[in-house]
Design brief:
Blueprint lengths: L1 H13 L17 E14 L3 E14 L7 E6 L16 E9 L2 E3 L7 E3 L2
Antiparallel strand pairs: 1-2, 1-4, 2-3, 4-5, 4-6
Amino acid sequence: MKYFILFTFLIFNLYVNACDCVNIHGLEEAKVAFKGKILKIARVDSDYVRYEVTFKLIKRIKGIKKKVKTIVIDIPCLYDACCGVPFKEDEVYEVKAYESGRRMKTNLCWAPTKINS
């Protein structure tokens, strides 16, 4: 019986999503918002692992100066289980981001949207 309970507990935990968005953040909360094509995704190993996603700007929606052609956004990972975003190079997204520690960041709770091109 105890093995059944342990097995059930382990199987259940495999399917639990670690990301729990209490709120999906909107445009009014975002520091910047834009539509852009991903040029590069780079893993950065520093105090913690993160990813820098470089976008070519297609359309400015909020908070980006006119001279800016590209923008780099940090994400925690590339999987939704850790609140990351499964971004892929050469795809177009509409992104909302916030500022933290002088870096622009987004995650699954900011609901980036893939644009079908």
